[in-house]
Write a structure and sequence with these properties.
By secondary structure, this protein is an alpha+beta fold. 52% of the residues lie in helices and 14% in strands. The strands form two sheets. Strands 4-10-9-8-5-6-7-11 form an eight-stranded mixed β-sheet, sandwiched between helices. The two termini are 58 Å apart.
């Protein structure tokens, strides 16, 4: 290993060969060759002054020795007079390990901070930021407008901001989805699912219409597995009637959307479980498509099979059998 590589590796753990303490440690090691590693302050100081054109102060050397001891690069024998300072491969290994541990702690803290900054940047809603900037510059809050949403995270943020936040009791969220909605469980839940369930707690009613083919053998026993994977909030929402699930009799192609009341909707552009492209459509901008989507949903809803009733039966069956915890 070259001196340059060694210097680089030492600097990674916070040890610099040019540091005053390391220079004093070198003087100790050179003087220690003659005293078998255990030397007095006078011997250390004599070695340092012999190697320098201008002798440093004794206070400076004492300070360096104190730092070396606190960082475990040397040990001090205080039993005799004068005291003796000891530098060996063992003490230097201990000092290097201590420096590495301290540096790892620092880097760990920096990593946590960087992770927070990364999450914050990735989660920044540029539409919201732009609205704030416009408000600061003009003194007016810009009117919400329809637009295209790109990126999976931005789509999910829009779902939270536009459809979950600030809902009121009595509001209705219409939702169309495939049977994979029944895969909902805490391990797969994210901020959107959390925001939806919190809104249900606050009085929002969700009408979830499943438009894909249900698996064979549906009934209380098969759908009970869905309940076993969900949180108590889902169960409570079903019991309260604020989380309603229905399935179309046969696979149906229709709007894949979330629509809050008849005011605004997010229309997904793909069938992916977590779409990365969607359109936010506000009633003021396009009332025709909002009205058509709601009318289509309501028509399919009326002809759909009510899963909620089966789920309530499964909940009652579990409760009667003594299994009251459905989490």
């Amino acid at each position: 290993m070259t001196v340059e590589n060694l210097s680089r590796d030492l600097e990674r753990i916070g040890v610099h060969l040019s540091a005053p303490e390391i220079q004093v440690l070198g003087a100790m090691l050179r003087a220690g060759n003659e005293t078998h590693g255990e030397i007095t302050f006078q011997q250390i100081y004599a070695n340092i002054t012999s190697e320098r054109a201008k002798a440093p102060s004794k206070a400076w050397v004492y300070k360096c020795l104190s730092n070396l001891e606190s960082n475990q690069f040397i040990t001090v024998n205080r039993l005799g007079k004068p005291r003796h300072y000891i530098a060996t491969i063992e003490t230097i290994m201990a000092g290097l390990a201590n420096s590495r541990s301290r540096q790892l702690d620092i880097l760990g803290d920096e990593k946590k901070e960087l992770s927070k900054n990364l999450e914050s940047l990735e989660g920044t809603d540029m539409q919201n930021v732009a609205s704030i900037v416009i408000g600061i510059m003009t003194g007016r809050k810009p009117r919400l407008t329809s637009g295209h949403i790109e990126g999976r995270d931005n789509v999910r943020l829009a779902m939270i901001r536009e459809l979950c936040a600030n809902t009121n009791p009595g509001d209705v969220l219409r939702l169309t989805e495939g049977v994979n909605l029944l895969d909902l469980n805490p391990s797969k839940s994210g901020p959107v699912e959390k925001a939806l369930l919190e809104a249900v707690q606050n009085g929002l009613t969700i009408k979830a219409l499943l438009t894909s083919q249900m698996p064979q053998g549906q009934g209380p026993a098969s759908l009970a597995s869905f309940l076993s994977k969900t949180s108590s909030l889902v169960v409570q929402g079903i019991l309260d009637g604020r989380l309603q699930l229905r399935v179309t009799p046969q696979p149906t192609s229709t709007y894949r959307m979330l629509c809050l009341n008849e005011e605004k909707m997010i229309l997904f552009m793909s069938k992916a479980l977590f779409p990365d492209s969607a359109a936010l459509i506000c009633r003021d901008d396009n009332p025709t498509i909002v009205d058509d989507a709601v009318a289509t949903f309501d028509k399919l809803w009326e002809g759909a099979f009510d899963i909620s009733a089966i789920l309530k039966q499964a909940i009652a069956s579990n409760a009667n059998s003594g299994n009251e915890s459905l989490e």
